[in-house]
Write the structure tokens for this entry.
Amino acid sequence: MSTRRPVTFANAAGETLFGIFHEPGTGAAGVGVVLLSPGVKSRVAPHRLYNKLTERLLRRGYSVLRFDFSGLGDSEGLVRETLMADLYRSIQLGRYVDDTLAAIEWMRVHGGASRVILGGLCGGALTGLLTAPQCAQVEGLFGLGMPVILDGSAVDKVATMSEGQRQGVRKKYLGKVLNLQAWWRVLTLKSDFRLLWHSIVGRKRSLQHRAGDGLAVLGETGNPRFGPAMRDLLERGRPLLLVFSGADRLHWEYQEKFATPHTAELSRYSTVDVVVIEKANHVLTLPEWQEEFFAHCDRWLTEHFGEGPARP
């Protein structure tokens, strides 16, 4: 029978971080899983996704640590940003890498895991990717909806939206052509005319990949830390699972601004696995979307790590 207990540990700034440590009933050791909180969410994640995933991981024999980043949930620390977009930007640039390194060290010293697999949703997934180059104990990474661009209050989301996003917005507008309420919003000047113009009339923007760019994310808002971190992980032969939701802009951004321009280079690596859950939203609201995500994780873990450290 699996067990769980609350744990605390300090980050590099001396702040106390709170988490839950789960152990399978078989007393697995060696490789553990650290789940990294998404965005401003807690260690539970939307729709209790991390709790449900933890149960699956425990059945495979993995120990699991879920914890709150500094300034979030139960953990100490302050979030000084006043706008959410600026907080997201700081996360995308590595705000919680030190917290993650502290969690990995706790797993090594107290959790019986000399090696770890990192996993997470959105900002949690990206935090794991940015942490991997700094920690030899990271054996692999699985991420759901990992962002490749930088947010921020100064970012013009209309002007920089992806082509997939533009087509999706245009489809919604065209679907309302016969909707009287939609026309009333237009006549009363309540519609977003700039978004309407960009979606209907805007032209596809060409993203040119220049020699020497390496695995850069292209475009004005590309995250300069994404490509180097991915290259490091892949060069060391560490397996990477990227799961995207079909209705999520992050999938379009990954494809248009990173994967497509670097198709030839990415094909050199056999350890990167990209899958899409069709029609799903960013946080996998429906149970069937969650189950598909869990199934992809099960398959990936079996392919790269066997049946797990232990079996129930």
